[in-house]
């Protein structure tokens, strides 16, 4: 049994994100799975994601890692829309071929003030990650 408890399922996350970050078609095509301590996202490919050389650009991966961190915090804390990225460290492991982008995020620590997660990023298969990120979010202080 996981020590993490999901407070917002995929549908509730889509609703909260849709209010603050509207996107064509909503978020239901991005949030693929929410379970205790984990989220899985997928982002459709667009040619604008490519860097010279035809591989997925680093800033695209960084944005997806940050989004995964934000979503995993809200999934486990509730609608904490004011959670802020404190650190994002990313390691690029290999060039990523064009295709649907995936992010598998796992909570490492979830405290009252900070949440830390590990994010694996890939296009071809989860066994061949293109990048790995560690993301820390600062959670807003409860009203005194």
Characterization of the model:
The chain is of the alpha+beta class and 144 residues long. The chain has one domain (10-138): Thiol Ester Dehydrase, Chain A (Roll). The chain contains two helices and six strands. It has helices spanning 10-20, 58-77, and strands at residues 31-35, 38-43, 84-92, 101-110, 114-122, 131-138. Strands 1-2-4-5-6-3 form a six-stranded antiparallel sheet. A hairpin with an 8-residue loop joins strand 5 and strand 6. The model has no long low-confidence stretch (mean pLDDT 93).
Sequence stretches where pLDDT stays below 50 over 5 or more residues: none
Q: What's the overall geometry? A: globular
Give the spatial strand order of the biggest sheet: 1-2-4-5-6-3
Rg calc: 15 Å
Instruction: Specify the CATH homologous superfamily.
Output: Hotdog Thioesterase
Head-to-tail CA distance between termini: 33 Å
The CATH topology is Thiol Ester Dehydrase, Chain A
Report the CATH C-level class: Alpha Beta
Write a concise synopsis of the structure shown.
Helix content is 22%, strand content 33%. It is an alpha+beta fold and 144 residues long. It has one domain (10-138): Hotdog Thioesterase (Thiol Ester Dehydrase, Chain A, Roll).
Key features?
144 residues, 6 strands, 2 helices, 6-stranded antiparallel beta sheet, single chain, Thiol Ester Dehydrase, Chain A, alpha+beta
Sequence-ordered SSE layout with sheet pairings:
Elements lengths: L9 H11 L10 E5 L2 E6 L14 H20 L6 E9 L8 E10 L3 E9 L8 E8 L6
Antiparallel strand pairs: 1-2, 2-4, 3-6, 4-5, 5-6
């Amino acid at each position: 049994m996981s020590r993490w408890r999901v407070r917002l399922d995929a549908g509730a996350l889509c609703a909260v994100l849709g209010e603050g970050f509207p996107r064509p078609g909503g978020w239901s095509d991005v949030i693929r799975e929410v379970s205790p301590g984990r989220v899985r996202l997928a982002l459709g490919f667009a040619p604008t994601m490519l860097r010279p050389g035809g591989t997925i650009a680093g800033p695209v991966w960084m944005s997806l890692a940050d989004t995964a961190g934000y979503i995993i915090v809200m999934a486990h804390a509730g609608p904490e829309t004011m959670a802020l990225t404190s650190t994002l460290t990313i390691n690029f492991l290999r060039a990523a071929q064009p295709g649907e982008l995936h992010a598998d995020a796992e909570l490492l620590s979830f405290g009252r003030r900070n949440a830390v997660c590990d994010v694996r990023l890939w296009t071809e298969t989860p066994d061949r990650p293109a990048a790995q990120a560690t993301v820390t979010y600062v959670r807003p202080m409860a009203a005194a």
